[in-house]
Write a structure and sequence with these properties.
about 270 residues, alpha/beta, 2 domains, 2-methylisocitrate lyase, ICL/PEPM, Pyrv/PenolPyrv_kinase-like_dom, catalytic activity
Amino acid sequence: MTPSEPHPAFHALHARGFALPNAWDAASARIFQAAGFPAVGTTSAGIAYARGLPDGQRLSRAEMLAEIAVIRRALSVPLNADIEAGYGDAPDDVARTVREVAALDVAGVNLEDATGRPDAPLYALDEQVRRVEAARGASGVFLNVRTDTYLCGVGRNAQERLEETIRRGRAYLQAGADGMFVPGVTDPAVIRVLAAELPGPLNVMAAPGAPAVPDLLAAGARRVSLGQGAMLGALGHVARIAAELRGPGTYGAMSESFYGFAQAEALFASP
């Protein structure tokens, strides 16, 4: 392992394309690992929900790093950590976050350009470039930079949104990003354009109704993640269990996908 590429196997996954499930605790991380995924990501939204908070940097840097550390210890496969917008506006804040999370032996991080401020939902391009440069200088982990141009509805129309995404993506990659993450895009036609225009691997986020992972990869995505999707699916199932228990008092929903006690004990029997 070299300082510039501390997890070469994780970097290599982006050359051939892969699906990256996102965990919100040690249990979900172990489930994904046991299913055979070559790497696991964290979901900041899922972690926030599990702690009774809404999404959007409601946890402090220290709180999020503590959650990432627990998930990392549960895994033997590489972990990609969602560090939201870096827990501070200044480049030094971002650099500190990346250094501290890299010390947990993560393989990569996601860094977004969303500010969380309604009046200015994205960092100005030059400001985010400086933040990306600081992140790059702090560690050699795989730096996956996310732009929220689609989630925030940037531009007056679809063409302007696409052009701004490409403009930001090229700038972030030139500043040191290893990959670009564009959540909100699952249309294969748009993915093909982005993959052709961005000189780095493209990450998209799947959700119910999206094309299947092989179709997204065929369109040019190199990484397909789930974000908080798996956790929301789990919450939906728990809601069904709750409704049935509160109503007729039966256990059909719980029985549908019951994970046995012995299975759970075996899942956590070894590191």
